[in-house]
C-alpha cells in the first residue's frame, strides 16, 4: 500500500533528485562523480570474479552470459539508481544481455509471467500487488538461506555483515534481502513548537503533556491517515507494542508470523490503551478517519494539527507544499516510558531471486554487485532514501534528511525493529480495528478479539 | 435454385455481421466469465503457480462473511438511491428542457451533461474536496450560517457514510439519462400535446398521461442500466472516496472483490465475489423487467 505514498512522492522526489544531481555536477562534488565512475571499474571487475567464485563450485564458466532479466517497480524512490547500477553491472559483464522490466505498473504487467512459471530472474519487491511474505509462501522466491551464510559482495565483504537490517525469515528461511531502510515515526513542526513554547516530545509523558498544551492553545494535537490506517499502526501502535514488551521486538515478529498468543498478550492491550487514551482525551483530529495521506499531510503542514504519524519520506513527498518557516521535527516513537529507548519501526523494500529464474548465476552476481559499500551513498543520492547497506553516507550528496535518518537508525539509543511483513488478512484486520478503535466503535479488547478471530483463521 | 441462392446470400450476409461480434463476445465476455467461475472453485493467491481445488468453499465462506453482507446491502442501497435520484431529477430536467419552453434550454442541456463527461475518478476526487472536513466546500458553506465553524466529517461517520456517496453518483449520472429522455420526449408528436391543450389538460396531466407512457420504454432501459452500472461500477467511486472505510462500512461488492483479489491475495475468493456480482445483476435485471412490465404504448 505504500505505493500510493510513493507514487505521489514520485514527482517531488524526481525534482529533489535532479537537484541533488545538478548540485553534484556543479560543485566540488563534480570530481567525485567522475571518480565514482572510475572507481566502478575495479569493483565491476571483481563482480565478475565473485560470480566466478560463486559458480566455481558447480563448474560454471567465469563469464556471465545469456539473458538476465531484472524487474523493478518505479515509485517514490525513482529509477535513477537502478538505471545506473544496471549500467555498471552491464559494463562489468559485457556478455550478459540485461533486460530491464520496469515502471510504475510493472508488478501488474509481469504477474502473468510469474503465474506461468516464466518470471524475471531478479525482482525488487516494492509497490502494489507484490508482497514478500506472500511471494515466499507462493513458492516464487529462491531460498537464499544457505547461500547467504557465506556469500560475499564484489569487494569480498560478507553481505550479511553489511546489512543494517537483517533479512526477514519466513518459515525459518531467507528469501529476500532488504535494500531500502526507512523508518516510521511521528513528525511535528519544530518552528511551531518553539513559537508556542511547547516541549518537543521525548517519551509518552512529554507527548501527552505537550498534547495538553497544544489542545489548550486551540490546535488539534494529532492527525492520522484514517483512510489508510497502516500509517498509525506502523508509526504508533507497533512501536508502542515493542516498548511495552521491554524493547523486545520478538513479540511483533510473532504477530507477523500470525501466532495467536502474541495478539492476546497484555503488551498489545497496553499499547492499544495508548490509542484509547489519545481518543478519550480528544487529541485525535476527527477529520482523520476519512482522509488519505495527502490530505492529512496538508493539514499537518498548515499547522492545523501538531503531530502526524508518517514515514521518513514525508519531507520529500511534500517538498512542494512545505511552507518556508516549517521545520520538520521527527521522533521514531512517542510511546516509550521516560528514559527508555526510542523504537524505530523500519519500512523497507527488498530484493529477491525468482525460484524459476533462468539465470540464477547472474541474479546472484547482481545481488553481490548491488550490496557493496559504494552503493550505499549512490542509493541515498539517487533514490532520496537511506539504503540498507551499512556505509558512511555523510560525505555523499544525499539530501540532509536522508543523512539524518541514516544517523538515527544507527544510533545506540534507538531500538531498530526489522520490518515485519504481516499476513495481508491480519494486516487488514488490524487496520480496520484500529480505525474502529479511534472512533470509539470498539474498545481495546474488541480490537484484540476481532484480530484474533482473523489470525485463528489464517493460522489454520 | 435461384431462391436458394438468395437465401444463402442472405444468411452469409447476416453471418458476416454476427460471427465476428459473436467471437469477440466469446473472447471478451464469455471466456472471462468462465475463467472467473473456474477460479472461484480454487484457493489461489493470484500469484502462485499452484491452485488448490476447494470446491464450493469460497461460496460457503462468502455467505458467512459479514463484510460481504454489508457490501451487498450497500450495493442495493446505491442502486435504489441512484434509481430514484437519477430518474426523478433526469425526468424533471428532460421535461423542463423540452415541454416547459425554458429560455436557453440548449445551454442548460450542456451544463447538466458536463458531469457525465468527467471520469468517475475525477468526480470522486472533486467530491472528496467538497466533503473534506477541514477545507471542504460543504463545511465552508455551512459555516456561513453558524457561529462556530462546521467540522462535520462527511465521509467519516461510524455508519451511514454510504449515504454520502449518493450525491456524487447521482450528480454524475443525471446527464446521460436526461439526454436519453429528451430524445424520447422530442419524438412524441406535438399534435398530442396540442390536443391535450385544447382539452384543457395542464402540464401535470400532459406529463402523466402523454409523456410518461410514451417514454416508458426509455425509462425502463434507464432504470435497468442504472442498476447494472451501479452493481458493476460503484467500485471506482468507493475506492477513490472512502477505500471501503471507515471500518468497511462503505464497502461494495466490487471494492471488496478488489480488496480480496489484489490486496489480500485471495484471488479465488475474489472470483467468487465476481460470480456473486454477476448473479445478483442477472437476478435483479429479471426482477426489474418483471416489475416494470407494462403494455407498451405506441404512437401510431
TrEMBL record, chain A:
GO biological process per UniProt: transmembrane transport
Region described as Disordered: spans on this chain: 36-60
Protein keywords: Cell membrane, Lipoprotein, Membrane, Palmitate, Signal, Transport
Database matches in InterPro entries: Bact_solute-bd_prot1, SBP, SBP_1_CS
Matches recorded under Gene3D superfamilies: Periplasmic binding protein-like II
Top-level taxon: Bacteria
Compositionally biased residues, Low complexity: 37-56
Disulfide bond among keywords: no
Position of the signal peptide: 1-23
Pfam families: SBP_bac_1
Alphabetical list of SUPFAM superfamilies matching this protein: Periplasmic binding protein-like II (SSF53850)
Family note: Belongs to the bacterial solute-binding protein 1 family.
Protein name stated in the entry: Extracellular solute-binding protein
From TrEMBL, chain B:
ABC transmembrane type-1 domain location: 72-288
Pfam families according to UniProt: BPD_transp_1 (PF00528)
A cellular component term, taken from the record's GO annotations: plasma membrane
Domain of life per record: Bacteria
InterPro entries xrefs: MetI-like (IPR000515), MetI-like_sf (IPR035906), UgpAE/MalFG_permease (IPR050809)
Main location: membrane
Single biological process term from Gene Ontology: transmembrane transport
PANTHER family associated with the record: BLL4140 PROTEIN
Name recorded for this polypeptide: Sugar ABC transporter permease
Source species: Paenibacillus albicereus
Amino acid at each position: 500500500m505504500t505505493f500510493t505514498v510513493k507514487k505521489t512522492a514520485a514527482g517531488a522526489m524526481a525534482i529533489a533528485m535532479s537537484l541533488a544531481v545538478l548540485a553534484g555536477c556543479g560543485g566540488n562534488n563534480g570530481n567525485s562523480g567522475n571518480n565514482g565512475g572510475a572507481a566502478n571499474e575495479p569493483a565491476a571487475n571483481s563482480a565478475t570474479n565473485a560470480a566466478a567464485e560463486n559458480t566455481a563450485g558447480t563448474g560454471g564458466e567465469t563469464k556471465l552470459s545469456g539473458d538476465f532479466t531484472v524487474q523493478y517497480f518505479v515509485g517514490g524512490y525513482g529509477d535513477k539508481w537502478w538505471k545506473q547500477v544496471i549500467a555498471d553491472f552491464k559494463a562489468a559483464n559485457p556478455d550478459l544481455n540485461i533486460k530491464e522490466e520496469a515502471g510504475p505498473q510493472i508488478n501488474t504487467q509481469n504477474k502473468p509471467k510469474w503465474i506461468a512459471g516464466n518470471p524475471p530472474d531478479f525482482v525488487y519487491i516494492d509497490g502494489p500487488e507484490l508482497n514478500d511474505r506472500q511471494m515466499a509462501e507462493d513458492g516464487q522466491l529462491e531460498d537464499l538461506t544457505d547461500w547467504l551464510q557465506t556469500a560475499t559482495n564484489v569487494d569480498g565483504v560478507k553481505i550479511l555483515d553489511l546489512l543494517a537490517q537483517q533479512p526477514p525469515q519466513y518459515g525459518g528461511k531467507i528469501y529476500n534481502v532488504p535494500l531500502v531502510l526507512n523508518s516510521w515515526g511521528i513528525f511535528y513542526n519544530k518552528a511551531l513548537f518553539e513559537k508556542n513554547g511547547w516541549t518537543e516530545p521525548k517519551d509518552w509523558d512529554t507527548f501527552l503533556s505537550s498534547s495538553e498544551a497544544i489542545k489548550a492553545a486551540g490546535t488539534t494535537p494529532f492527525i492520522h491517515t484514517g483512510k489508510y490506517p497502516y500509517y498509525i499502526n506502523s508509526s504508533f501502535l507497533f512501536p508502542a507494542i515493542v516498548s511495552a514488551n521491554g524493547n523486545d521486538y520478538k513479540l511483533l515478529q510473532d504477530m507477523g508470523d500470525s501466532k495467536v498468543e502474541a495478539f492476546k498478550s497484555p503488551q498489545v492491550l497496553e499499547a492499544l490503551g495508548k490509542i484509547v487514551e489519545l481518543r478519550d482525551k480528544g487529541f485525535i483530529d476527527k477529520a482523520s478517519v476519512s482522509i488519505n495521506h495527502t490530505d492529512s499531510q496538508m493539514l499537518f503542514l498548515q499547522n492545523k494539527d501538531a503531530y502526524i504519524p508518517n514515514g521518513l519520506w514525508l519531507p520529500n513527498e511534500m517538498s512542494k507544499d512545505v511552507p518556508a518557516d516549517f521545520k520538520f521535527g521527527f521522533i521514531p516513537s512517542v510511546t516509550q516510558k521516560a528514559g527508555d529507548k526510542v523504537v524505530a519501526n523500519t519500512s523497507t523494500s527488498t530484493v529477491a531471486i525468482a525460484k524459476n529464474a533462468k539465470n540464477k548465476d547472474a541474479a546472484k552476481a547482481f545481488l553481490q554487485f548491488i550490496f557493496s559499500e559504494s552503493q550505499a551513498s549512490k542509493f541515498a543520492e539517487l533514490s532520496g532514501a537511506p539504503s540498507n547497506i551499512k556505509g558512511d553516507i555523510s560525505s555523499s550528496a544525499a539530501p540532509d534528511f536522508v543523512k539524518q535518518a541514516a544517523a538515527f537508525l544507527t544510533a545506540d539509543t534507538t531500538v531498530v525493529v526489522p520490518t515485519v511483513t504481516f499476513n495481508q488478512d491480519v494486516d487488514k484486520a488490524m487496520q480496520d480495528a484500529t480505525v474502529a478503535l479511534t472512533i470509539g466503535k470498539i474498545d481495546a479488547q474488541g480490537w484484540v478479539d476481532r484480530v484474533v478471530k482473523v489470525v485463528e483463521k489464517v493460522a489454520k | 435454385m435461384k431462391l436458394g441462392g438468395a437465401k444463402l446470400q442472405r444468411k452469409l450476409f447476416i453471418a458476416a455481421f454476427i460471427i465476428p461480434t459473436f467471437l469477440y463476445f466469446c473472447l471478451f465476455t464469455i471466456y472471462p466469465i468462465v475463467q472467473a467461475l473456474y477460479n472461484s472453485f480454487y484457493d489461489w493467491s493470484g500469484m502462485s503457480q499452484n491452485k488448490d481445488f476447494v470446491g464450493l468453499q469460497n461460496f460457503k465462506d462468502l455467505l458467512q462473511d459479514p463484510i460481504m453482507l454489508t457490501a451487498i446491502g450497500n450495493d442495493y442501497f446505491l442502486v435504489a438511491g441512484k434509481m430514484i435520484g437519477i430518474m426523478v431529477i433526469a425526468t424533471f430536467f428532460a421535461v423542463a428542457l423540452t415541454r416547459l419552453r425554458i429560455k436557453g434550454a440548449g445551454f442548460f442541456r450542456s451544463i447538466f451533461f458536463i458531469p457525465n463527461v468527467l471520469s468517475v475518478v475525477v468526480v470522486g476526487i472533486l467530491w472528496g474536496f467538497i466533503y473534506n472536513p477541514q477545507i471542504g466546500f460543504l463545511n465552508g458553506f455551512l459555516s456561513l450560517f453558524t457561529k462556530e465553524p462546521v467540522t462535520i466529517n462527511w465521509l467519516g461517520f461510524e455508519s451511514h457514510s454510504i449515504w454520502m456517496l449518493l450525491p456524487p453518483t447521482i450528480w454524475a449520472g443525471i446527464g446521460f439519462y436526461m439526454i436519453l429522455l429528451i430524445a424520447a420526449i422530442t419524438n412524441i408528436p406535438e399534435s398530442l400535446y396540442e390536443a391535450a391543450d385544447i382539452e384543457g389538460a395542464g402540464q401535470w396531466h400532459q406529463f402523466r398521461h402523454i409523456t410518461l407512457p410514451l417514454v416508458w420504454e426509455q425509462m425502463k432501459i434507464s432504470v435497468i442500466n442504472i442498476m447494472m452500472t451501479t452493481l458493476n461500477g460503484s467500485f471506482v467511486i468507493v475506492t477513490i472516496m472512502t477505500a471501503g472505510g471507515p471500518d468497511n462500512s462503505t464497502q461494495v461488492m466490487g471494492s471488496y472483490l478488489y480488496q480480496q483479489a489484489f490486496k489480500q491475495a485471495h484471488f479465488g475468493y475474489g472470483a467468487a465475489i465476481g460470480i456473486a456480482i454477476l448473479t445478483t445483476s442477472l437476478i435483479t435485471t429479471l426482477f426489474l423487467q418483471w416489475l416494470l412490465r407494462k403494455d407498451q404504448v405506441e404512437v401510431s
